[in-house]
Amino acid sequence: MRKTLALLFLAVLIIGCGPKMAKQETLDALAEARAALEAAQARLADLEAEKEMLETQRAELDHMMTELQEEIDMLQTKIDTRCMK
């Protein structure tokens, strides 16, 4: 009786705590989530590269604006000195 009860308890324990198979719906949802994650990571990498490019372009344009402003100031000074004569 004890052996039977012990075997029954062991069988229930093994069956109840054993590995469980995931449902196909769960696996599909997981695969979809992984695909979405990979797509989001790729998009993030693209956007970071674009941001870097735009920041470089902005720095170049700022430098060009500074040079043009200096040229404007120089030309304005020439105009002012020639008109005062």
UniProtKB/TrEMBL annotation:
Name the UniProt record assigns to this protein: Uncharacterized protein
Signal peptide residues on this chain, from the entry's feature table: 1-22
Coiled-coil features, chain-numbered ranges: 20-78
Record keywords, A-Z: Coiled coil, Signal
Gene3D superfamilies recorded: 1.20.5.340
